[in-house]
């Protein structure tokens, strides 16, 4: 069953075409990787799908809602982990989760239980009452990962989930994402890290110049390297942001 879909999305900023006919579908139970160079349109697509940005044209649907026409309802039903966004500096993680829980309609006991589970999973239990301003960048990322899953949404949008995390925590997050999708949820991960996409995703969409140029499932790759496919597709499309390999 399709949980996330975008059809012929287009978005321009002046002379720049951020999206140029982007179409993609993500099924329930799927961990879909959005793989592409910087400026390919990955983040813009996710912002449209989560109701943060209105496209010039095209359509989208997320869990039966239209994020363009129903942005508040859409955001209430999904989890969002933006790239490089920090938690509020003037709150502690515990206070931030209490706020997120109230917004999401969770009772205090549920918030406390889930927040504790995440703090233990990601290894920041000793920091839950420290101001977020005083946390390291990696610890702040752990807090942001937690808030995305605190209400256990049916669809999650994640932009570079492993940024600033140490190798042990990276592995824990990757395993959790795989398990979360296997429970019947839809997970869309945006990344420019080929190894991450190849390691955890059930299907990968290669994005460049604001459109989807190729898709590969884990089964379809076989002995084929995702890195080779990536370079072949991106260079063939004439990406505006990726240098051509020589030799």
In CATH, what is the homologous superfamily of one domain? P-loop containing nucleotide triphosphate hydrolases
The oligomeric status of these chains comes to single chain
Order of helices and strands: EEEHEHEHHHEHEHEEHH
Question: Mean pLDDT, rounded to whole units?
Answer: 91
How can the largest sheet be summarized? 6 strands, mixed
CATH topology of one domain: Rossmann fold
Q: Helical proportion?
A: 25-40%
Rg value:
18 Å
Shape: globular
What is the name of the CATH class of one domain?
Alpha Beta
Distance between the termini: 44 Å
Number of helices: 9
Q: Please indicate the percent range of residues in DSSP E strands (runs of 2 or more).
A: 25-35%
Given as residue ranges, the uncertain stretches (5+ residues, pLDDT < 50) are 242-247
Indicate the CATH architecture of one domain.
3-Layer(aba) Sandwich
Which strand order does the major sheet show? 5-6-7-3-8-9
- Structural class, please? alpha/beta
The overall strand count is 9
GO molecular function: ATP binding
Family: Belongs to the ABC transporter superfamily.
Protein name: ABC transporter ATP-binding protein
Pfam family, one: ABC_tran
Brief write-up:
Belongs to the ABC transporter superfamily. With 247 residues, this protein is α/β, with parallel strands linked by helices.
Strand-helix topology:
Layout: E1 2-13, E2 16-27, E3 31-35, H1 42-49, E4 57-62, H2 71-77, E5 78-81, H3 93-104, H4 108-122, H5 137-149, E6 155-159, H6 167-182, E7 186-191, H7 194-200, E8 203-208, E9 211-217, H8 218-221, H9 226-237
Parallel strand pairs: 3-7, 3-8, 5-6, 6-7
Antiparallel strand pairs: 1-2, 1-4, 8-9
Helix pairs in contact: 3-4
